[in-house]
Design goal:
Structural class: alpha/beta
Order of helices and strands: HEHEHEHHEEHHEHEHEEEHHHH
Number of helices: 13
Number of strands: 10
Shape: globular
Strand order of the largest sheet: 3-10-4
Amino acid sequence: MKHTMAKLAVLTLAFATLLCGAAFAADTIRVGSKDFTENEIVAELYALALEDAGYDVERTMDISSSVIHTSIVNNEIDLYPEYTGTGLISILKLDPITDPDEVYETVKEAYADQFDLVWLDYAQANDGQGLFISKKASDEYGITTISQLQEHAADLRFASQGEFDEREDGLPGLEKVYGPFDWASSKVYDNGLKYQVVESDEADVSPAYTTEGRLSETDKFVLLEDDKQVWPPYNLAPVVRGEVLEANPEIEEILKKVNDTLDTATVTALNAQVDVDKEEYEDVAEEYWESIR
């Protein structure tokens, strides 16, 4: 009887160990996204890469940008795509920094210390503040940078969204560095109309975020280089819960395979497939993943 009980105990222990191993192998990685196109696409790319590597993935998309940081801190998701400038200014409440590496190192250190969150390597894609000009005006005046824009401001019509003229990180911030922008005219338009207004030759220049889908139409619009680096960078990077990465260190290389391919032009083109061509973000992400896997 003792031998039988001992054998049963060994078998029970072995079975339990097997189950624990199976449970560990089947652990689900919870991927979240913010509630806009670009973040959905990138989060879906992360999810597809993890699934391709053998992980089960639970998706929680369209979390409000204002609460997604709280979601990961509260252990509701395990990782999501974040922007270095958002981490620096919106979460950590620090002053803007314009050097991409310095911003990254600052948020990486602070997030690890304060939240036990890890910033993995950032992508070259930068979804920050910018200005675009019509291709026609760019060609006519030879304008590809904000310095050149400032020199020719008197020849150009500005399509503002109102608040840009007042925000410290808008026109006032630009003028501190580049000098005054004495536009030929300046009118306030709804943000959703800016490309239509410039395309129809009612204005020449407008503010934009640097990965907006319509900026992929380079035959119509030119995104200007912030050559004096007024605006802080908003580079994309995965933010991961520390304990999840510690238990699954291979996640770093899996997501790096995605992030290494994402520059500003690529992300802009992906956004355009959804926002301009009206494709589903899941389909766009899957097609892109198949091209880089």
